[in-house]
Design brief:
Layout (H helix, E strand, L loop, with lengths): L1 E3 L6 E4 L7 H12 L13 H4 L2 E5 L9
Antiparallel strand pairs: 1-2, 2-3
Length: 66
């Protein structure tokens, strides 16, 4: 299991990846970092990793009205 995760961005989890997927994961990481929210609909997921996405978890935003 591998996850892409940054503060304020959705966490994207990939399962079943192998060492052969390393180059695609580096490409995914670069695209993820340049997206606004991290959601896979906003960045180009390498074709061989699309089926490996097993979870997308949006981050909660801090409440400022307290």
């Amino acid at each position: 299991m591998v996850a892409l995760d940054c503060a304020g961005m959705s966490r994207v989890r990939f399962s079943g990846v192998t060492p052969e997927d390393a180059a695609a994961l580096r490409q995914a990481h670069a695209s993820y970092e340049h997206s606004a929210t991290g959601h896979p609909s906003e960045w180009e997921v390498p074709a061989n990793l699309v089926a490996a996405i097993t979870a997308v978890t949006p981050k909660r935003r801090a409440r400022l009205d307290t």
